[in-house]
Amino acid sequence: MPASHFSGRASAPGPFAPRQRSARGASDIGRCWHPLRLAVSLASALCSVLLAVAFAPRSAPAQSPDVRPFLIGTYTGETSRGIYRSEMDVASGRLAPARLVAECTNPSFLAIHPTQPVVYAVSETPDGQVLAFRLVQDGTLRLLSRHASAGSAPCYVTTDASGRYVLIANYSSGSIVAFRAREDGDIEAMTYLAQHRGHSVNPRRQQGPHAHCVQMDPTDRFACAVDLGLDQIIVYELDKSDGALRRTSTYQARPGSGPRHLAFHPGGSLAVVIHELASEITSLRWLPDEGRFIELTTVSTLPAGYAGENYTAEVLFHPNGRWVYGSNRGHDSIAIFRIDAEGHLHAVGHCSTGGKTPRNFRIDPSGRYLLAENQNSNSIQVLRIDAQTGQLAAIDGAGVEVGKPVCIRFLPQLVP
Prior knowledge:
The chain is mostly beta strands. The chain has helices at 26-32, 35-55; strands at residues 67-74, 82-89, 99-103, 109-112, 118-123, 129-135, 141-148, 154-159, 165-170, 175-181, 187-195, 211-216, 222-227, 232-238, 245-252, 259-264, 270-275, 280-287, 292-300, 311-317, 323-329, 333-339, 345-352, 358-363, 369-374, 379-385, 392-394, 400-401, 405-410.
């Protein structure tokens, strides 16, 4: 998801920041804290406090900066009923037992509004939906609205950096849809539907378009849609005035590779795409002035000699930009790569996820832990990250049981 004010980046002093005390003392302070300026500053501070309170569970003590809450999207059925919430102890990596915070069907992917306590979820069903929830003070989610996804089996949701637009990918029908959001974060209306057309060479998986991911680029100008069925990344310019998507360029992957998810480097000029059907990752150079990708290198996510069935799923950069991680379903591992300054990938190794079918994973905001979601063994495994080598190591007893976990989104860091 796009970078937001929750990312922890330092910001420049605001227009109402107190001036430095001068030798003139009280007279200078008096000019700085003019009554109107003081009132506006206090109002701004109050808004920040209210936002933090909205994210904080009422029944819990003040949130420690060493505890990070997160939401878990699932496939529902016998072992799951919707969206769950847990917390991670940053010092140890241990996870608290997960609790249900919203009942809904197949909330397989989640996104969080960049400035409002609002959570979006797709309902991955044949008659797909996108849902908007408000985070309330007891830590649960209150449904605000639900909207038809204008397609089938939506599997991805994100927002632009302002939170004005919500974008989803419909997998089965192969389309990207943009929605306009209100100032409070609730979804207002659909603004555009981009229907993909065509097919590729795999007769079972690529008989038509299958949009699997849509990501805003680091400039927040382009929406990059990864289509597994077409072996393409289709780049659209998002018109912020009306929410229209205007096709800009197309990156063509190797036929039959089945690109699935995309991640941008923290520096903004590189990206990686993971290919589900070929079990490969390709590094790309991103040209934001032109809105297009240039292919750099492609590497296998599997160890030499592995001959079993495998399908990849998620791909992410470490926050320090030095490491790339991709999940293998079949080999049931996280593949680890180093990325050099030219954007070339170099294999580092593999780490078992301690379960079956790691469809999704997330790196915590501190960059110290990777949380691997084992869909078919109903568990989340915590892996410690060595920031110097990129290697992963399981932390015994730190994980948690959750039915069919397939998405994790960390909530904003709260002020204790």
